[in-house]
UniProtKB/TrEMBL annotation:
InterPro entries in UniProt: GCL_bact_plant, GCS2, Gln_synth/guanido_kin_cat_dom
Region of interest called Disordered, as start-end residue ranges on this chain: 1-21
One MF annotation (Gene Ontology) recorded for this entry: glutamate-cysteine ligase activity
Highest taxon of the lineage: Bacteria
Record keyword Ligase present: yes
Keywords for the protein's UniProt record, in alphabetical order: ATP-binding, Ligase, Nucleotide-binding
GO biological process: glutathione biosynthetic process
Function as written in the Swiss-Prot or TrEMBL entry: Catalyzes the synthesis of gamma-glutamylcysteine (gamma-GC).
PANTHER family cross-referenced by the UniProt entry: GLUTAMATE--CYSTEINE LIGASE, CHLOROPLASTIC
Pfam family, one: GCS2
Taxonomy of the source species: Bacteria, Bacillati, Actinomycetota, Coriobacteriia, Coriobacteriales
Gene3D superfamilies, alphabetized: 3.30.590.20
Protein family (similarity comment): Belongs to the glutamate--cysteine ligase type 2 family. EgtA subfamily.
Protein name as it appears in the record: Glutamate--cysteine ligase
């Protein structure tokens, strides 16, 4: 498989003359990133986001607005999650309670964002209870949730968008940008883990390591056996989808694997990305193909505008006031917690960070992209960064085990067992499908 690397958007209006406020906007963005710096003694926490797809017993999709659909499910959840998010038309788009927020993705995939957790047992309890709540509400309607990386039966364009203006604009833009934009928005579902940083240096070090690990984590957490209603054509479908969504804002942030990369560089990247969605004069949203730098050429960005601009970037590792590690597919809860344990063991242990930094010292953008090609084609039989990926996976699991306490190490077992068997959840689902 030979897929060219995405082209990166370059803003020709990067000079002070055409963007007088650019320097101040870079400062606003870097101040935002620095506001996420945590004290060293209190930073070892994880945020966890899990997206899942609701289907009927036959696997057919459940839309937002249909009778007993996702809007109705949110209304039922509101009893336990009383903080509601309602749009200007009165549509319920999310519910929450302290430490937990339930929202919906573009085609009504349902997501729980929870944490931050310093106790993985608490995370396990939270996500297990959430899953039981969903099951109890959906089962009487003949529905259930699917924890896979892509819709098990439907094609993306057959799925209705929820009534959220932002998603209509994104669908318009991304549909024209590349072939899989609608597939990312409507068909996919993910697991994301967020980690803290204690300084700019710590943040960018962890970002480099997370990027180098991205192909390996994608393999370990591969759980998309079906794509567009058919058996997948290759492994790591999520990797392929994101490659063909929008090269301006997905994949590898240019320069992020370099030791010299800075918060200012990330800020430049944000400013040089087309906005797609921009705030209008009436506190609503409008469609916009200007870059954020052009949009705010003459005025400094507010904190709210900075947060929105940062949220419109979709790289494999995203910087906010924490680092989001984004390559994993949606998975069943035990594997989600195992993935959180894996990330904790790797990123919150100084010895492991040193070993990973040395292991991936020579990884550059070309090696990063080549590794994705190899894994999509060969899976566990691939060579990545000059080594058998199976050996690298063993090394990563071993480091995580050594970096965890006994209780957390036990939670890693679902993923460590898959790695030992050289198999993924997607592989297992394919086998079950063939045997059925």
């Amino acid at each position: 498989m030979n897929i060219p690397a995405p082209e990166n958007h370059t803003d020709v209006a990067s000079g002070d003359a055409s963007q007088p406020a650019r320097k101040r906007n870079i400062e606003a963005l870097t101040a935002f990133f620095r506001s996420g710096i945590k004290p060293a003694e209190s930073h070892e926490k994880l945020g966890i986001e899990l997206e899942q797809t609701v289907v009927r017993a036959d696997g057919s999709p459940v839309s937002y607005s249909e009778e007993n659909g996702i809007a109705h499910l949110l209304e039922q959840l509101r009893e336990s999650y009383p903080q509601a998010t309602v749009d200007e038309e009165g549509d319920l788009l999310g519910v929450a309670r302290p430490g937990e927020a339930i929202t919906i993705e573009p085609a009504a995939q349902i997501e729980l964002s929870a944490g931050p957790f310093d106790d993985l047992k608490k995370a396990q309890e939270t996500f297990t209870a959430y899953r039981k709540t969903l099951d109890d509400l959906l089962a009487p309607k003949g529905m259930h949730v699917v924890a896979q990386g892509y819709h098990p039966t439907a094609t993306a364009r057959s799925l209705d968008l929820i009534p959220k203006r932002r998603y209509a604009f994104m669908n318009r833009y991304l549909s024209a940008k590349d072939i899989y934009g609608p597939c990312m928005m409507r068909g996919s579902a993910s697991t994301q883990i967020s980690i803290d940083y204690t300084s700019e240096q710590d943040c960018l070090r962890k970002m480099r390591i997370a990027y180098a690990l991205t192909p390996i984590l994608s393999l370990i957490c591969d759980n998309s056996p079906v794509f567009e209603g058919k058996p997948r054509s290759h492994k790591l479908m999520r990797t392929d989808i994101w490659r063909h969504t929008d090269g301006d804002r997905c994949g590898l942030v240019p320069g992020a694997l370099s030791i010299g990369f800075t918060f200012e560089d990330y800020a430049e990247y944000v400013l040089d990305t087309p906005a797609i969605v921009a705030p209008d004069e009436n506190e609503g949203w409008r469609y916009c193909e200007q870059t954020f730098g052009q949009l705010y050429a003459d005025k400094p960005m507010t904190r709210k505008q900075v947060e929105h601009a940062v949220s419109m970037q979709f790289p494999d590792v995203r910087l906010k006031t924490y680092l989001e590690i984004r390559p994993a597919d949606s998975m069943p809860v035990p594997y989600v917690i195992a993935y959180a344990a894996l990330i904790k063991g790797l990123f919150y242990n100084e010895g492991n960070l040193q070993q990973l930094e040395a292991l991936f010292a020579n990884v550059d953008a070309d090696a990063f992209e080549r590794s994705k090609d190899a894994l999509m084609e060969h899976g566990y039989n691939a060579h990545v960064y000059g080594a058998p990926v199976a050996d690298l996976c063993d090394r990563v699991i071993g480091l995580a085990e050594n970096g965890l306490n006994p209780d957390d190490r036990a939670l890693l077992v679902p993923l460590s067992r898959l790695v030992a068997q050289r198999v993924t959840l997607a592989d297992l689902a394919e086998r079950e499908s063939k045997e059925a």
